[in-house]
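Recap from last week: sequence in, structure out.
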Amino acid sequence: MNIQTGERVLTELDRVRLASIASRGSRARLLRSRGLDAVLDDALVVPSRRVASDIVTMYSEVLLRFVDDGIERKLTLCYPGDAEPQSGFVSVLSPIGLSLLGQQVGATVRWESPDGTERMAVVDSIVFQPEASGDYTT
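Predicted structure tokens:
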């Protein structure tokens, strides 16, 4: 699969599940303000069995290197109900989670932290991706 630099890639399953979350009640307004609608509208959508192993999908565990201080951190991208930020499980609806969704290894992601500071990190590697391990239903 050839993707353009900076183009996000979503699996069909991730797109359907995230679109369902985005369409629910008052939460939908909050999600739109965080850019989920734009990601859902603009991303390249592929079947789960065809997503490249270097793309951040739901429940991928990624190794990030923060640009400002060089610190590396492992994070797992998850749905809001499974989020435990202290344990490294970040919600796809959080600013950092949304910035990671659909990105490729090597991408520099940007988001605004709760204190208003812009943060940047490089997706150094994907430690685990469900689809690469044969799990197409997570």
